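Observation: inputs received (chain + N-(5'-phosphopyridoxyl)-D-alanine).
Thought: call the complex predictor directly.
Action: predict_structure
Action Input:
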Amino acid sequence: MTRTVYVNGQYVPEDKAQISIFDRGFIFADGVYEVTSVIKGGLVDFEGHMERLKRSLRELSIALPENIADIKEAHHELIKLNNLDEGVIYLQISRGAADRDFPFPDGAMPTLIMFTQEKSLLDAPLAKTGIKVISVEDIRWARRDIKSVGLLAPVLAKQAAKEAGCHDAWLYQDDYVTEGSSNNAYIVTHDNIIVTRQLSNDILHGITRYAVLALAKEKGMKIEERAFTIEEALQAKEAFITSASTFVYPVIEIDQQSIGNGTPGPIATRLRELYIDNALANLS
Ligand code: PDD
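Observation:
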């Protein structure tokens, strides 16, 4: 199947899509991205993803090449052209193409690309079985709040997880978990308190995290935004992750040790249901 993708205002077959070899996204990882999920042909949390996109761009002084209404229309057009019922839309904006030199170039036009990926989200098998993770030192840069395309550290972490027969990696710094390699990380204590690291430059401010915590609060669940160690996670009642491409996945094993009784926990399972119901009711 050949997808239709979006490159700087044009819809083109994926094998005809072109960007410059001098693109600074390619040369310097000088760009940012967003991943928005699609269920039943509609967008989940689109506005939140666009707010974070604008923030990431602002932090790097990259101009938004199109207005958000046009970007939303392009998302819908890609859904239509690719007949996408369930999956994600990847969007990337780089500073554009210019002869290789480190400082910002004068007059470069930002590059905007988007493409669809089919993915099972509502009935994802891993949501039922839960995932196994390993812990890996967080070797990323100090501005993880910016959704930068510089993803070599998560690439290495996920490869290490794969080689260990696991699904993902939880990253730690000075003994404390920052987040998952491409998701936010949570534990549930034996007092049923949901614990996840507080927002700072150390983690990405997850759009799914925001929605899940709001729903949990609404249902009267207790939340503590603070750092926790792998040691504490191993003793926890439950663990789970959130992201646009997973919604909520239970974590059943960390470093080959079972969490709780080694099966998806009730709070993670409940939060997944709440998130999905809310997403379905608010598709855009
Ligand atoms: N990753 N933390 C990191 C490091 C991430 O890369 C992501 C998202 C998240 C969760 O954010 P959100 O809930 O807004 O998706 C947290 C995307 C899905 C990816 O890189 O594919």
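Thought: report the result.
Final Answer: Residues 125-281 form a domain with the D-amino Acid Aminotransferase; Chain A, domain 2 fold (CATH 3.20.10.10). Residues 35, 179, 182-184, 204, 206-209, 242-245 surround N-(5'-phosphopyridoxyl)-D-alanine (CB under 6 Å).
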